[in-house]
Each structure stands twice: as structure tokens, then as C-alpha cells.
Design a protein that fits this description.
8-stranded antiparallel beta sheet; globular; 10 strands
């Protein structure tokens, strides 16, 4: 019996050694870093901020353009939101970013430190439910009103900012042609609740 088992064992060992090595699993190429819309980023940050204060309201949302992430129409590689807690008189800044980047931007949602909040100027807190129109829709509305300006200034970056002021009953998106409001000579206001065009600012 032992004599029969020995050759079988040797044959099995040889067969195992002669098996071709399995090809290494192909690594999928890394997915491109994708920008997202403002409403998407805002709600991601809001979900995190609710753990800080249950009665939070929005104060400001603005896009941040990153060289590593190519922005699309009405989207950005990073966003910054400021939330306030009226009952506590406190404010807190949150960011969402597609990638780690200079300027204290971290991938995903990141919470900044708390600060004392008192209303300054015309900007007021707004209810989260008031943000019904997303930044990509707002971009289309602004673009439709800006054909002549865009034709003359095709290479200007476009940024977005959301705030509630005493000028309108609902928060407004501001679509800005330029690096910032202070460095821009043209922007469009769109109602964040209804999506309606409001005003052209020059």
C-alpha cells in the first residue's frame, strides 16, 4: 500500500509545482477627483454640523476652486459653509473638499473651531430648507442672462456664494465672474428657493 501511495504523492507534488503562476490582479486606475454641486456639499456639511448644534441655520456657502480638481458648470472641488446656532450665539465653519489641499482643506467634511456669533451687516442666517435650487441649475440661469458678457470674457473663473440679505426674502446664490466678489465687475443673483433670476450686479 505504501509503495502505491509514494508515486501518487510525488505526481501530485510535481503537478502542483508545474502550475503556471496566476497573473497579478490588474490595479484599476485611480478615479479622477470629482467636483460636486453646492447643495450636495452643503447637506454633507450640515449632516456633520447637526452633531455640534441641533438648531443650526446656514449663514454662508461659497465655492473654492482647486487646481487639482477641474470644476464643471456650477460645481467646485471644495466648498466652505458657515453655520450658526441662534440659541448658543455661536458660529462654526465647515469645509468639504475632494482632496487634501493647502489652506486647511481636508478630504471630505472638516469642522473648524467654534466662534462667537452676532449678526453683522445685512447677512442673516437662513433655514436649511430654504436651499432648494442647486448651484448647477443656478449656473445655467446666470449663463442665460450673461451671453454677451461671457463672449467678451470667456476665460474668467466662475465662483458661487450663497447668503440671505435684507434685499430679498429668500437666500440668494451669487454667480461671480472672477476670483472673488471684490475682484469681479459682474455677477448674477438667483433665488436659492425658487431658482428665479433676481438681479445683475456690475
Amino acid at each position: 500500500m505504501k509503495r502505491l501511495l509514494a508515486p501518487v504523492t510525488i505526481l501530485l507534488a510535481l503537478a502542483a509545482c508545474s502550475e503556471a503562476p496566476k497573473p497579478a490582479a490588474k490595479k484599476e486606475p485611480p478615479k479622477p477627483l470629482e467636483p460636486i454641486t453646492g447643495r450636495h456639499a452643503f447637506h454633507s456639511m450640515y449632516a456633520a454640523a447637526r452633531g455640534w448644534a441641533a438648531d443650526i441655520q446656514g449663514l454662508q456657502l461659497k465655492s473654492i476652486q482647486l487646481p487639482e480638481v477641474k470644476a464643471g458648470p456650477g460645481t467646485a472641488g471644495a466648498w466652505q459653509a458657515i453655520f450658526v446656532s441662534p440659541s448658543r450665539g455661536r458660529a462654526r465653519t465647515y469645509t468639504w473638499s475632494a482632496v487634501e489641499s493647502p489652506g486647511n482643506l481636508h478630504k471630505g467634511v472638516f469642522a473648524g473651531p467654534e466662534e462667537t456669533y452676532t449678526q453683522r451687516g445685512q447677512v442673516k442666517p437662513f433655514l436649511i430648507a430654504a436651499l432648494k435650487t442647486d448651484s448647477d441649475e443656478v449656473y445655467k440661469t446666470a449663463l442665460a442672462k450673461s451671453a454677451e458678457y461671457v463672449k467678451k470674457n470667456p476665460d474668467l473663473p466662475i465662483n458661487l456664494q450663497l447668503e440671505l440679505t435684507a434685499q430679498f426674502p429668500n437666500p440668494s446664490w451669487r454667480v461671480i465672474w472672477g476670483e472673488s466678489i471684490s475682484r469681479s465687475n459682474y455677477s448674477i443673483l438667483v433665488d436659492a428657493s425658487t431658482g428665479d433670476y433676481k438681479q445683475t450686479l456690475r
